[in-house]
Amino acid sequence: MRHRKKVKKLGRPTGHRKALLRNLAAQIIQHHEIKTTLAKAKAARSFVERLITYAKNDTVHARRLAFKQLQNRTLVKKLFDEIGPAFEDRNGGYTRVIKLGQRRGDGAEIAILQLVGFETSLVSAPTKSKKKKAAPKEEKAPAKEEKAAATEEVTEEKPAEEPKAKKTRGRKKKAE
User: 0.70 cut: is pTM over it?
Assistant: First the structure.
């Protein structure tokens, strides 16, 4: 029984799951938003929010805890120098999950996980493009008539073809 066990396993062994969450967190810190499945986004949300809480408390110990998870100095530097100070006055809720619908191939729920205040272009309202309608061309109508007349002449000149033998599913018979 899994009573009082709150870890979402995501159908993976422990090592694979930790690596997945670390990679998702690294991509969020680098790009400020990612597009992934809803379950992965929800699992990564708590992981990323913990890292951002470390970044708000800029100490050597907090940097080491963040490095323990991210394993990348440039990402830790970006987390503590850019992202942490941006959320200094905010108490939690550093990320948002936006549901996008279902993936076409397997029907999985897709979502965008993004940092609040760092929105970019993955989620954008569909814009209507305005196209000018071209004036109707009158020259095409006579051309179609000429083409139709030419095809009629061609169909009259073709000789009648002999009917082909019906294909069977059995073995081919030898020609005698």
Answer: no
What b/e readout covers 9-23, taking b as 16+ CB neighbours within 10 angstroms?
A: eeeeeeeebeebbbe
pLDDT in tens, the chain (176 residues): 989 988 889 999 999 999 999 999 999 999 999 999 999 999 999 999 999 999 999 999 999 999 999 999 999 999 999 999 999 999 999 999 999 999 999 999 999 999 998 887 655 555 555 666 666 666 655 565 666 665 666 555 566 677 776 666 766 666 65
Angstrom distance (rounded) from CA 122 to CA 112: 8
In sequence order, what are the beta bridge partners of 102? 109
In which residue are the tokens 């992965």 written? 40
CATH superfamily placement of domain 14-115? Ribosomal protein L17 (3.90.1030.10)
The CA R_g of the chain, rounded to the nearest whole Å, is 32
Burial class (CB in 10 A: 0-12, 13-18, 19+), 115: buried
DSSP character at residue 103: -
Q: Considering only CA atoms, which of 51, 56, 86, 91 is closest in space to residue 71?
A: 51
Task: Please provide residue 120's backbone torsions phi and psi, each rounded to the nearest 5 degrees.
Answer: -125, -150
